[in-house]
Amino acid sequence: MPTTVPKELMRYLAAVSLLALIACDSMDDTPDADTIYFNGNILTLSPHSQKVTAIAFKNGKVQAIGTRIGVMRHQGDITEVVDLNGQTMLPGFFAGNSQFSKLLEQTGSIEQSLAAFASQGITTLVDIDIDRKALETLLTQANANKLTLDIIAIPSASELEALAGSDQIKFGQYSNRLKIAGFTLKLDGTTKDLTAWMAYPYQENPDLPAPNWRSSPLMPFSQFHALFQLAVEYERQLFIHAVGDAAIDAIIQASYDLKINAGQDQRHVVVMSRFMRNNQIQQYAKLGLFGCFDTSNIYLDGVDDVDKLGLGRANGQSPIKQALEEGLSASNICSPGPNPFDTTFALWSAVNRVTKEGEIMGSGLRLSALEALTAMSKHAAFQFFEEETKGELVPGKQADAVILSDNPMAIAPGLIRTIEVVATIKQGKTIYRRPSASKTQKGDPPTN
């Protein structure tokens, strides 16, 4: 005959079992950090954090920040403790116009291509203007867990109608470190080849295709308007390449036609925004448009810009300073081309705005080092709706970080270009470490 267990004993056994279960969960959820970094300059880029000299990472996120004494309370038996030796840690950089698939096609190696970006302190990169085949390649690499960096894929607008409403693609969500953000199109070209669409004519010179040359859009306004409308209807971000102010005027006009406003928080991005006028910055604010700039053009093409457009327009290019002063979030990550751009050179260009010939172009538009860093990380995270998880080294956000040889906020502005990336950390794991060879002088930046 089975033995009857008293109710009191059953309650006791149930309570013991519950306590044991809770104890196991507590042991798994240990407060011990995976890694602690100390004895360095830790730039969180958060306005709410005071001076930080130590930081703890756990489970791919920032666990704690503060002084060494405070953060070391998270040290456990298996915590790795790293001495920064006075070096500087800050949030990992974004690369916003990287054309990663073109680099992958050139190298034939996903590991080599990703390593090239990691060596520049980049933890999130954007693969823009890709076709269906390139997108399928990325999906294959992601499904095979080959991605060590986050990749934001932005297919060409030619794929918009086919993909925007697809049930097979989850827009705006990462899966194995790949996210499809929206679509891109080019509205104009560049000043170098006289294809940037300008509201006022280029300066007269023998190379102009016609007198009073202003160039023209790469597609009819009606076609652009229809694509923009389709993106809005599907609630997809549109990334529009526009260098000249006439191209930007067309974007502003289409935005008003489609009744877009800042309160809707759609964050359509104007890639380059290079020769925008002051009054256009105010329109960006009203419409909620986001400017993705590239101040490295000042070094690469500044003198040529003076010849083609005159000193006034050349000096006023890439006015990210004015955009920030108007309260806009604006990034400085849109260096075009398949090669990973030199991130510390990009910082240097934003702070100094110097041409190859050593001339300062638009001295009043130079950024502080803090503004320049923020434009490559915190504002870039906002550009892609990732401000809740990236862009700052604060508890709860991803442990995406870069360690630099020097502090950009303490070094002389002209020397920022000599700073080197020492290590790159993605979700708490070091994915790049600078070879131990002695530091060498940097040469010219890559030309894309």
From TrEMBL:
InterPro entries attached to this UniProt entry: Amidohydro_3, Metal-dep_hydrolase_composite, Metal_Hydrolase
Signal peptide: 1-28
PANTHER family, A to Z: IMIDAZOLONEPROPIONASE (PTHR22642), PROTEIN LONG AFTER FAR-RED 3 (PTHR22642:SF2)
Membrane-spanning intervals of the chain: none
Keywords noted in UniProt: Hydrolase, Signal
Organism: Photobacterium gaetbulicola Gung47
Domain Amidohydrolase: 105-432
PROSITE patterns per UniProt: PROKAR_LIPOPROTEIN (PS51257)
Molecular functions (GO terms): hydrolase activity, acting on carbon-nitrogen (but not peptide) bonds
Domain of life: Bacteria
Protein name (database record): Putative metal-dependent hydrolase
